[in-house]
Amino acid sequence: MTGRWLKWTLLGALLLLVTATPATMAQAPSPISLYTIWVRLSLRGLNQSEIESLMRNMDPAAITKVKERLRSTVLSNLETKRVRQQYLAARDSDDIKNVLTSIETELRFAGLENDREIRLMIRDRFGIRVGQM
Fold this sequence. Notes:
This protein is mostly helical. It has seven helices and no strands.
């Protein structure tokens, strides 16, 4: 009796394995956005000119949208870091230099170190003039 029960259980399990569908269907890899490509290139150390050179064959409107999103991200990060409060609380030139270095670092990580528009946006939002304008 036990042998027959075991045989039927194994046969049922084998039948179940053969006919069962996978819990998750195979998915096509998601396309990588231009924003992701830009950020990855930037984090690898490429500057804005090099990134724009690599993307010269891309749709200019899409590149413009990527830059707008990057600018928004930089401004959000600077607000999170409370750079305006740090700048206003600065007691000497070293404190101001630290704030400016923090801003330049954000720009470099975003690959926007040559972007005039983000510098104007920083000046308007935080009251901080950042080099090369």
